[in-house]
């Protein structure tokens, strides 16, 4: 069967072992020659070493024009101790935050214990909310009697009335123009007028008298005065 390649962690361990065994300094090209002896192909040595440098498990320094790499067992121990201290600090902070949250939770529970008084208060609150919704719905039914809404409807009616009579003027003008220019087609024109609803009783619209607000509207006006 085909031999399985080394994982990144395994490669890192193999390369670290080179440093620990010799406790010496190396150039990258030297490590690329030693890597295959540990099962790490030379093409991946550079990336493996860089990952160890990033984690502070391997140190590097430039001396002249050359870059040297080295690592001692104590380096790994120091790194592990640093990681341990940080994790321990995070753990202590999390424990402290947990205690604070538990205390806040206990404080919020005070006054909310199950009791007859609390159940009664919740019942009253629910009844008030239901009554509020009923009144809100009832007020919506009276919206047509609201003075502001009534005034808006009145103005809209006046605008529509003026527009309708403008079109009545236009129809009369067009009818007169047709009669003057096509006198020989009088009967056909009259027939067409009747078909579209322009009969002898066709005339301008009259704006109806303003309808009073009614009892509900009067009450609202009296309440405002």
TrEMBL record:
Residues 15-73 form the Mnd1 HTH domain. Pfam families: LZ3wCH, Mnd1. Its main location: nucleus. Residues 84-145 form a coiled coil. It is found in: Nucleus. GO terms for biological process: reciprocal meiotic recombination. Residues 149-205 form the Leucine zipper with capping helix domain. One of its GO terms (molecular function) is double-stranded DNA binding. InterPro entries: LZ3wCH, Mnd1, Mnd1_HTH. GO terms for cellular component: nucleus. Keywords: Coiled coil, DNA recombination, Meiosis, Nucleus. Belongs to the MND1 family. This is Meiotic nuclear division protein 1 homolog. It comes from Escallonia herrerae. The lineage of its organism: Eukaryota, Viridiplantae, Streptophyta, Embryophyta, Tracheophyta.
